[in-house]
């Protein structure tokens, strides 16, 4: 009989650690809602001890979705972190405390500067403490793939005896290669099944050598019961194993792995697009499963073969990952039902009737102006509508602007609002965007540096919406900002302000009380 593989999604924890991918509470809730539709078994919702904002987001996710999906959050092996996790996830029906502590020599010696025995004892004490709070505890042996095997096993044995119910073996720095990692999992699995066959063996792979998917699959072949992944492979540095790749490999090659997941694969593309839109981090066009070209066949030979029989060049169909009917064309006459369906298909929640009605009125205004409304336009509507609450927190808003461009003095004049304060100014620059950003920088008085500026067209037609994605550097941290508008100068100004507002929110969160 094929084994069920448990899928933990860590997009909201490891994925959100990507510089510039910071999500606000509404965005995290939208993603969690879509992860629930995708039917992941466990959502890792954040790292509650890291900030008050993260604590609140985890708590909200546990309260909202904890009745139907297991919720976990990360703690270091210290009581204050474990308390923060417990307090934030306890409302869920199946809460799981996730503790991480290094096992490699380099972690033990350089990070902790303690003896191996002392570090192991820290882990055991942490598990014992967590078990006084909740029955389910996962222990991650950070940097396991570079650890001395016997010490790694001694740690696993000790924390299992202390009550850990899941052992997670991370390839933290993406150093492993598939046969070696598979072998490591097989050896641990053999001993673990003898020690306590109820304990679940899990893996968590990073992609520094581009091997995260291959290593995860090799682990499944060698006995792993659970996999940790992220949507679009987001995560520290080169990212984590991509959920869509691992899940589809298990589905397409089920007989080879003799294992399956309960992921609703038809939700994969929608989930990927939602994460792309909310984080502003695009997937490469040739990315497996969810890239724009993943199912595009361009050469004549391939097209000819496909017309004869799809299986000639297709190992899975676009429908399997939800690629059919992604493009929606709505008009002002489409009505509430069609619009609601379109919003939900993109992974957004519509259960708040009052909020939906406001959104529908905005849709009618846009449809009157644009005639044809495409899926990207709907995304624009929903995401801009749902970020309104941030402006209530006294952040910067664009009131009006004028940009004059010529090859002598490109000039921008901008009026901003911050609560009841109005700020006005003009600057010249090397070009229109440089002038625009110079005046905004001067008005907000923050020493930010523009690191990246990208503009794409989001939909077809002459009223196509332009999406601007930018990254700024402020006090050593990267913040991203996105905005969409039919006027690309306005989108550029709003993207910059969104990034600045992100930095301000971060400052506010840091000044808020620590958990
Ligand atoms: O990469 C890692 O080791 C982690 C652990 C917290 C599982 O993210
Ligand atoms: Zn990780």
From TrEMBL:
<dbReference type="Pfam" id="PF00682">
    <property type="entry name" value="HMGL-like"/>
</dbReference>
<keyword id="KW-0100">Branched-chain amino acid biosynthesis</keyword>
<keyword id="KW-0028">Amino-acid biosynthesis</keyword>
<protein>
    <recommendedName>
        <fullName>2-isopropylmalate synthase</fullName>
        <ecNumber>2.3.3.13</ecNumber>
    </recommendedName>
</protein>
<dbReference type="InterPro" id="IPR050073">
    <property type="entry name" value="2-IPM_HCS-like"/>
</dbReference>
<dbReference type="Pfam" id="PF08502">
    <property type="entry name" value="LeuA_dimer"/>
</dbReference>
<dbReference type="InterPro" id="IPR013785">
    <property type="entry name" value="Aldolase_TIM"/>
</dbReference>
<keyword id="KW-0963">Cytoplasm</keyword>
<dbReference type="InterPro" id="IPR002034">
    <property type="entry name" value="AIPM/Hcit_synth_CS"/>
</dbReference>
<comment type="similarity">
    <text>Belongs to the alpha-IPM synthase/homocitrate synthase family. LeuA type 1 subfamily.</text>
</comment>
<keyword id="KW-0808">Transferase</keyword>
<feature type="binding site">
    <location>
        <position position="14"/>
    </location>
    <ligand>
        <name>Mn(2+)</name>
    </ligand>
</feature>
<dbReference type="GO" id="GO:0003852">
    <property type="term" value="F:2-isopropylmalate synthase activity"/>
</dbReference>
<keyword id="KW-0479">Metal-binding</keyword>
<feature type="domain" description="Pyruvate carboxyltransferase">
    <location>
        <begin position="5"/>
        <end position="269"/>
    </location>
</feature>
<keyword id="KW-0432">Leucine biosynthesis</keyword>
<dbReference type="InterPro" id="IPR013709">
    <property type="entry name" value="2-isopropylmalate_synth_dimer"/>
</dbReference>
<dbReference type="InterPro" id="IPR005671">
    <property type="entry name" value="LeuA_bact_synth"/>
</dbReference>
<feature type="binding site">
    <location>
        <position position="206"/>
    </location>
    <ligand>
        <name>Mn(2+)</name>
    </ligand>
</feature>
<keyword id="KW-0012">Acyltransferase</keyword>
<dbReference type="Pfam" id="PF22617">
    <property type="entry name" value="HCS_D2"/>
</dbReference>
<comment type="subunit">
    <text>Homodimer.</text>
</comment>
<dbReference type="InterPro" id="IPR036230">
    <property type="entry name" value="LeuA_allosteric_dom_sf"/>
</dbReference>
<keyword id="KW-0464">Manganese</keyword>
<feature type="binding site">
    <location>
        <position position="204"/>
    </location>
    <ligand>
        <name>Mn(2+)</name>
    </ligand>
</feature>
<comment type="function">
    <text>Catalyzes the condensation of the acetyl group of acetyl-CoA with 3-methyl-2-oxobutanoate (2-ketoisovalerate) to form 3-carboxy-3-hydroxy-4-methylpentanoate (2-isopropylmalate).</text>
</comment>
<feature type="region of interest" description="Regulatory domain">
    <location>
        <begin position="397"/>
        <end position="515"/>
    </location>
</feature>
<feature type="binding site">
    <location>
        <position position="240"/>
    </location>
    <ligand>
        <name>Mn(2+)</name>
    </ligand>
</feature>
<comment type="pathway">
    <text>Amino-acid biosynthesis; L-leucine biosynthesis; L-leucine from 3-methyl-2-oxobutanoate: step 1/4.</text>
</comment>
<dbReference type="InterPro" id="IPR000891">
    <property type="entry name" value="PYR_CT"/>
</dbReference>
<dbReference type="InterPro" id="IPR054691">
    <property type="entry name" value="LeuA/HCS_post-cat"/>
</dbReference>
């Amino acid at each position: 009989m094929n084994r069920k593989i448990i899928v933990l999604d860590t997009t909201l924890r490891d994925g959100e650690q990507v510089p510039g991918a910071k999500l606000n509470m509404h965005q995290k809730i939208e993603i969690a809602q879509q992860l629930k539709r995708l039917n992941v078994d466990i959502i890792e919702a954040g790292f509650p001890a890291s900030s008050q904002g993260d604590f609140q987001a985890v708590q909200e996710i546990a309260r909202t979705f904890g009745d139907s999906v297991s919720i976990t959050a990360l703690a270091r092996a210290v009581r204050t972190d474990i308390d923060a996790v417990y307090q934030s996830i306890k409302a869920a029906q199946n809460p799981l405390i996730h503790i991480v502590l290094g096992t490699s020599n380099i972690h033990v010696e350089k990070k902790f500067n303690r003896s191996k025995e002392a570090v192991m004892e820290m882990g055991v004490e942490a598990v014992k403490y967590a078990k006084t709070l909740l029955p389910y505890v996962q222990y991650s042996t950070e940097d396991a793939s570079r650890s001395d095997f016997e010490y790694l096993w001694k740690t696993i044995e000790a924390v299992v005896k202390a009550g850990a119910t899941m052992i997670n073996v991370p390839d933290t720095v993406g150093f492993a290669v598939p046969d070696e990692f598979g072998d490591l999992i097989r050896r641990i699995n053999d001993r673990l099944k003898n020690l306590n066959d109820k304990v679940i063996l899990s893996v968590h792979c990073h992609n520094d050598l581009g091997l995260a998917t291959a290593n995860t699959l090799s682990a499944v072949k060698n006995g792993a019961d659970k996999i940790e992944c992220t949507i679009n492979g987001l995560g520290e540095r080169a990212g984590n194993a991509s959920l869509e790749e691992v899940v589809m490999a298990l589905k397409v090659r089920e007989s080879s792995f003799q294992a399956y997941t309960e992921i609703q694969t038809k939700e994969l593309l929608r989930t990927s697009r939602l994460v792309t839109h909310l984080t502003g981090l695009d997937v490469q066009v040739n990315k497996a499963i969810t890239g724009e070209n993943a199912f595009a066949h361009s050469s004549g030979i391939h097209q000819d073969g496909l017309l004869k029989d799809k299986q000639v060049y297709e190992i899975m169909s676009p429908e399997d990952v939800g690629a059919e009917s992604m493009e929606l064309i709505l008009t002002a006459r489409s009505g509430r039902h069609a619009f609601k369906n379109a919003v939900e298909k993109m992974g957004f929640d519509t259960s708040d009737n009052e909020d939906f009605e406001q959104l529908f009125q905005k849709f009618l205004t846009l449809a009157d102006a644009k005639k044809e409304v495409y899926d990207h336009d709907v995304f624009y509507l929903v995401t801009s509508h749902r970020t309104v609450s941030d402006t209530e927190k006294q952040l910067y808003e664009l009131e009006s602007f004028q940009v004059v461009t010529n090859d002598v003095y490109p000039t921008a004049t901008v009026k901003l609002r911050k609560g009841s304060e109005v700020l006005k100014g003009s600057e010249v620059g090397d070009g229109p965007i440089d002038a625009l950003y110079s005046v905004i920088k001067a008005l907000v008085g923050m020493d930010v540096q523009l690191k990246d500026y990208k503009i794409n067209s989001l939909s077809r037609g002459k009223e196509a919406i332009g999406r601007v994605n930018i990254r700024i550097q402020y006090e050593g941290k990267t913040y991203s900002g996105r905005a969409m508008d039919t006027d690309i100068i306005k989108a550029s100004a709003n993207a910059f302000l969104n990034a600045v507002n992100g930095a301000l929110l971060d400052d506010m969160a840091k000044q808020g009380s620590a958990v």
